[in-house]
Specification:
The chain is an alpha/beta fold and 251 residues long. The chain is built from 10 helices and 12 strands. IGPS catalyzes the conversion of PRFAR and glutamine to IGP, AICAR and glutamate. The HisF subunit catalyzes the cyclization activity that produces IGP and AICAR from PRFAR using the ammonia provided by the HisH subunit.
Amino acid sequence: MLTKRIIPCLDVQDGRTVKGVNFVELKDAGDPVELAAQYAEQGADELVLLDISATYENRKTRLDLVKEIARQINIPFTIGGGIGELADAEALLQAGADKVSINSAAYKNPGLIDELARQFGSQFVVVAIDTKNFEGVPTVYLRGGRDKTDSHTFDWARQAQERGAGEILLTSMDFDGTKKGFDIATLAELNEKLEIPIIASGGAGNIEHFIDVFKKAQVDGALAASVFHYGEILIPELKKSMHQNGLPVRI
């Protein structure tokens, strides 16, 4: 049985880690290089860095920051933000990324998923989806949650899988930053429809929330930010509790 993954996320803007609620009201959460080193030392299974303003500022992810973080960690490293073509992914790979996360660019050009999977392998390609409930329907949003689409979240996730995505990173905008728990209902339903791994994002507030999402939604990984950044949950304690609850975990 594959171990369940604990994944801290660094949302970076202007070289600093930030965190908000429902994608707004961003506050400083620390230096991304220092945080990355801490998480690797604490036993995080992977690390995700999202350059959250790259897409709407129409620029690339900062390679200098990626290189600096990559030197500090020895765990799989996923980068997202401003990736629009193969050359962008190649540059991040050379800078130290193990995987890339594509969101708005993949939706606007679904063929990018095919190209990345062919060039680098499906395991390199994470398709991130920001979802929000609109009139009772899980709906895809783009550009950091700014733009609503007409696509059902499950339909887009299935297409991403068919095109070669290695996993789906699903962030529930309704739950993001609320610390009330993950969107288990949506995650569980999506997991029934897909064959590739799903990473849950949005809503973690305590250790029980992680245990719930792994047991009830059967996701492969759980991503969180502020609860780790501000020391509200320590990764060693989280993993110990997961192990005690019968979840396969790397300790």
